[in-house]
Structure formats: structure tokens, C-alpha cells
Amino acid sequence: MQNKSTTHSRRDFLAATGALAVGAWLGITQDATGEPKAEPIIDIHQHTNYSGRLNDDLLLHQRKMGITTTILLPAGTPAFGSSTHKGVSNGLQAMCTGNEVCYEFSCRYPGEFTFGANEVPDLPGAGQEIEKYLKRGAKVIGEVKFGLECDSAPMQQLYRIAQEYDVPILLHWQFQMYTYGYDRFYKMLEKFPKVNFIGHAQSWWANIDRNHTDQTVLYPTTKVTPGGLTDRLLSDYPNMYGDLSAGSGLLSLTRDEDHARAFLKRHQQKLLYGSDCNDSAGSGDACQGAQTIAVIRKLAPSREIERMIFYENAKKLFKLG
């Protein structure tokens, strides 16, 4: 049980940080003393109960990072077929909770949080479950993180739903684990040109490098030669976007800073900030999301490009107010 002083302090902090977040959302750029305020940031990738983190701590974490609006990506229903690796992948392999928790948490903090819709694609009724939350206002389908071929019938059902509801879909690419067949994914981009796809995770970011040939290497640290598959998909397909979240996204920037500067410039209208970190710190070396913010600020070739990645691209893609 918490003592009263601790509870009171926590409540005061939540209220104060909430006021700051709302101020940023409304475009207020100065505080009462005339000092400049941080500009708004949209975080497109967070989870409830991530690795057991309490959702009150998630709220504090996002406010400490300076996030204006957070999109919560739910897990699917616990299942024990091959697409979840006999249950290993339940909760997105990170204890994350599902649609209803994300929806209810977003309702508690409107404007500051919104939500996606998700389900294990090959479960009976998967489409209906996703549509239920899209009708409630879900902004995205995902995170789609399942052991299925990218062009399988269950996955294409999700793409058709995304097309019907005009929402993007976020795919986790991880060689031999999640979303198989990256080398032929371009066929889905061509088959569903009205669907905006967002790439994420290890294999997506490893393949910015033209010389990345060993797909079992998920976190390459070598210098980057432009023209990898991911680089080409972003360049060649207007419906392909990139989620800079997680350790894989951060590494894609830090492994070769000269390449990263050019990459951010080249794909400035296609890149989206996300955190996807499970800590409770919200700052410093303990928080990968905060590190990614710092690296983007360091490497973005211009203030305008920084603003696109942190805010403008996501606002447009997810149709945020």
C-alpha cells in the first residue's frame, strides 16, 4: 500500500506534466515566464503493460520524454498456433495487453493518447475484432508481429481492412520470426497501393544497407552503403513509411552518422518517431526512446526535417487533430 504523501506527490506530478502536455498540443510555445516550451512530439509506437510496466508509469514515462500524443499499439488475443510460436509471441512477446486496455487508457487521457487495433491474423473472427476498434476510432492496425508470410491470406485480409478504413498498418519485420518474405513484400505494396504500410524492427532497419546479405544478423554495426532493400522501398513506393522506434531504429542512426544524416534528408517525408521502450525512466541512458529523440535532434539536417519526423508526418498519416 502506498502512503498518502507518496500518492499525493504522484498525483501532483501527473497533473503538472499533464498540463504541460496539453499546452504543447495546443501549440503554446511559451510558458508564463516567456520561456520557450518544447515543441510537440508524436510517439507512434508504445504499449500498455510493456514487460510488466504499470500503465501509470507509462503515463509518467511519456510525459517525461515530452511526448504530446502517444499511439498505443495493442497485442492480439492469446493464442497457441504457429503464428504465435505456440504462445511465445502472445502479448507481442513482451506481456503487452490488448485492444480493450489500449482503448480504455486512451479514453482516460483523450488527446494525449490514442490507440490502434490488432488481432492474431489467422484466428477466426480476426477481421471483426479489428473492425470493432477501427469503428471506435483506432488510428492504425498493428503492431502486426506474427509468424506469417507477408503475402498470406490472413495478412492480406488485414491489408484489405486497412484499405477499407483508410488507416495505415504497422508491420514488425524479423527474419525467421515475424512477417516472413521481406524480399517479395514489394508485391503487396503494388497490390495495395492505397494502403500505407509502416516498416519496423530488426530486419527492416538492417536492410537499409545494400551490403546486408546475412539476414541472421539482426543488429549490424558496420558502416552503411545506401541502396538496401529498405532504402529502395522508401524511395520507390509512396505508400511505404519507416518507424524509427526500438533499438533497431536507434542503431540504424548511430551505426553510421554520416549515412543517417543523408537518410533522414532523403526520406524526410516517410520517417516517423516512435519509442517502443519498456523502461520507466523516460530520460537519460536508461531510456532508449529518449536517446532516439536526442539522436534525431543531433542528426536531422534541418529544423524542418526534425519537425517532420517528430510531428508533421505522423499528424498527416494518422489523421490526428
From TrEMBL:
SUPFAM superfamilies the record matches: Metallo-dependent hydrolases (SSF51556)
Keywords: Hydrolase
UniProt domain Amidohydrolase-related: residue ranges: 87-320
Superkingdom as given in the UniProt entry: Bacteria
Hydrolase found in the keyword field: yes
Single Gene Ontology MF annotation: hydrolase activity
Name of protein: Amidohydrolase
Organism per entry: Dyadobacter frigoris
Organism ancestry: Bacteria, Pseudomonadati, Bacteroidota, Cytophagia, Cytophagales
